[in-house]
């Protein structure tokens, strides 16, 4: 690998050898075997290219977290509405959950999150403890949740409430009734985004990491989603899901344009890397949800 001493010294001090090694790993020669001099790299590999790949992935994490943040807020709002429509403490009503096990699991999560808020002297928790004797409406409870909790809650509630949330996010079945199970797809997609969110929040790689598949089966007729393969376990599927959900919670957002720009202006210039590594289809700019904005 070609290395410029001053640049490498800065990045190795600021980022660390081990973290950067994950970005030069795909540049190793297939015939390379460890020896006293380390691995051999594909001819033309430079330390600067490794840094460019690292910086691309950092920006990809920032974009992903930005989208998921808006999706999470929208999802909290809809969950609060559906569970609190008849009773502000709808999360305490077992009839709102698929079964007793789901209800008990969510009660445990709710209690833990409230206890965490109290122990950290969260002013909202302190207010409800002092003024309302520790009673919390669902729209307050969800503010203590993280994205994984929100995803689990969406999976645990009865189908009619979950379907109402799916309808809000434009997951309604087609008018002829085909693909009537499309609403249930929202839950599996939210699980995927929870994993992506946690990965990005802990500064781990996104660009070449496998995730829980975001299957396009049964939803490929949704606007802009026809390019997701039946089993997409790389970041393209997750980004497509984010873009689709943002249509509802952030209409007119420039987010998809930023994704296009990052892929076409920055990633495309990185030596030996290609979009297929993230399962982007060859014609993604014309056929995916990213073509519409």
**What string gives the helices and strands in order?**
HHHHHHHHHHHH
- Helix-residue proportion: 40-55%
- Describe the main β-sheet briefly: none
Structural class: mainly alpha
Shape, please?
A: globular
Assess the beta-strand content as a share of residues: under 5%
**Ends: how far apart?**
39 Å
Number of beta strands: 0
Count of DSSP-assigned helices = 12
**Unreliable stretches, pLDDT < 50, 5 or more residues?**
none
The tally of domains stands at: 1
| Average residue-wise pLDDT | 89
**Cα-atom radius of gyration:** 22 Å
How is the quaternary structure best described? single chain
InterPro entries: Abi_system_AbiD/AbiF-like
Protein name: Abi family protein
Organism: Brevibacterium linens
Pfam families: Abi_2
